[in-house]
Amino acid sequence: MSTIITNNITKRFGNTLAVDQLSFDVQPGEIFGLLGPNGAGKTTSIRMILDIFKPDSGEISVLGGPMTDEKKNRIGYLPEERGLYQDIPLHRCLTFLATLKGMPEKSIGPKLTEYLKKFDLYEARDKKVKELSKGMQQKSQLIATLLHEPELLIIDEPFSALDPVNTEMVKEILVQQRDEGKAIIMSTHQMNQVEELCDRILLINHGHQVLYGTLEEIQDQFASRDVLVSPRSALPSTIKGVTEIREKNGRYLLALEDDIEPHQVLTDLVKNGIEMSAFEVAVPPLNQIFIQVVRKQARDEDG
Amino acid sequence: MGKTWQIIKHEYTRHVREKQFLFSLLSLPGLILAMVLLFFIISLVMGDRTPIGYVDYAGVLDDPQPLEHEGTFFEPQVEFISFSSQDEAQSALDEEIIQAFYIIPETYPDSLNVELVFFDQPAGSHQSQFAQFVRKNLGMFDGLDPLVQERLQDTSFITVSNLERTRRMAQDEWIMNFMPFIAGIIFIIVVLTSGGYLLQAVVEEKENRTMEIVITSVTPNQLMTGKIIGNIGVGLTQLVIWLIFIWIALLLGGLFWPALQDISIPADFILVMVVVMIPAFVMIAAIMSAIGSTMTEMQEAQQISGMFSLLVTIPFYLVTPIINNPNGVLARVLSYFPFSAPVTLLLRMGFIEIPLGELAISVGVLIAFGVLAIWFAGRVFHMGMLRYGKKLTFKEIFRKKVQI
Predict the structure, then answer these.
(1) What distance, in Å, lies between the first and last C-alpha atoms of chain B?
(2) Contact at 8 Å (CB) between B275 and B363?
(3) How confident is the model at residue B392 (pLDDT cuts 50, 70, 90)?
(4) Domains of chain A by range and CATH?
(5) Per the CB < 8 Å rule, is A86 touching B404?
(6) Residue B209: which of A47, A83, A97 has the nearest Cβ?
(7) B184: enclosing H helix or E strand
(8) How large is the ipTM?
């Protein structure tokens, strides 16, 4: 059963079309990347899923049907606009937010201690939130998102303000949550994190779908006819079926002729006795795909 | 109810645990204590207990009977010492054995004039004690019932009362007439404190961006109900603690000042206070949360809420015309205007019994405005809860369909 299904959801604010006929689904046990430039409609889509806004048209099913008060307890949300109660001690703030997610007060203590220790915040538990650094507040906010063990996690820019060590820890936690069968929607502009973590992505621009599918499918769509080779010996100056050879950091990018497939080039190189430590089809980085798609749309609209 | 209860608890404890709350809690008892201390100091300094002398040439006080009552802490009974000559009395005054002396001339029975000699004028209460002492010993009331004699010596007291005798204004009961003022001031402080906390609670959640997490955990109704009850709870805690302080102060004060023991608050006054204050409380609370939802910064929100605070205190600025004519047009109009109604009604009720019909209209208007304010707050909250940078305009509130 899909954790989230949206069917042609549309939302307008006055004359602005924020989300336009958007349909997608999110499955348990996957990290789903919700991507798009600023103002693309990501936050509005998330807010509709969370029932903060109602769509003007279309349907949303969350955890098997329309949103209910009970279901809110099964969702963990890390909003783009971070926020914690500043004037109370950290442990009281997190306890209160957990009770709002329906956790009985008695069961919060041990779980909270575990998370505080994991995030290296245990010593700071009695400090007022406003006395904590930005990174510490970010980690605290993540605890608030995870503490009640939600089945669905919706996280907006989870790595902002985190150092590399904490970024790695948060990634591990997300992968662990996914492996436990939780559904995770992650919205971020850090494309390297998307490539590393997401199983499927949805790229939206101006409120409507631009790209949707698994990371491989999308990268395949944009794959150029290039291969990357790391040879152990020198490459011949001309290779059959290759129009251009470019060197970059000891690796060679081979541009192929239109009717040549990568495996034909590989066979040819092996036949010629070229030893290689790597041979791969060049996949365009997601970052490049993102920029390419968004720019193309802008050009199309201008034109 | 579980989540609403958690919000009530959160709102209540976060304020009650703050130092700021403790300060505001102690401000009124502190003020009362300071006033009592001042009273003590003044009465100790001013209340000269040195005897008063007299030289009686008229023979009125040849064999004097002393006054029977013993005086109070603030108005102690002074001793009267007889001197046979003016010189003798003068030297006693010089030596500060007495604070002053009266000369009762031979012509007194006809002229009824006496002479008072002093360096510093004795307190008025001491002078009236001497007058009573003379009256008692003039023998004018001989043969009358002792109770009648005592009453006659006390001279006249004017008591103004309404026809039902449920409201009185008397020289010795002036404390009773302060009651409406005190009740009004307490009402204003409590309502504005709770309102201020509520305003702070709503704006703060927008300022610190917790709103988005909170509304994805609870319903707007749970949130608003929890906030309003929690913050009114803070105000009521303050009120109850203050009332306890006042009660203790009256008990302690009564030991020194018997007039305080006679204070009793009419039951209808308390009843009306409750009936008027509850909808007023809810109305102000809803307005404060509505202001909180439209504004994005605390400072701005406080400026707007200050305007409403001013409306609530209007009756105090117009206290003289209201009290001079508690059934006049001004008093009535202010009783029907929801913001000024609570304090106006309290002020009027100290002096008159407000007709039931009028009271019903005032309470009805308050309840209607309370309901309207809640509806308004709900609408504004839905529209403004996630607006961070841009505040909600009045045009938007009334023009648009609520989009959620």
Answers:
(1) 23
(2) yes
(3) low
(4) 4-219 (3.40.50.300), 224-281 (3.30.70)
(5) no
(6) A83
(7) helix B174-207
(8) 0.78
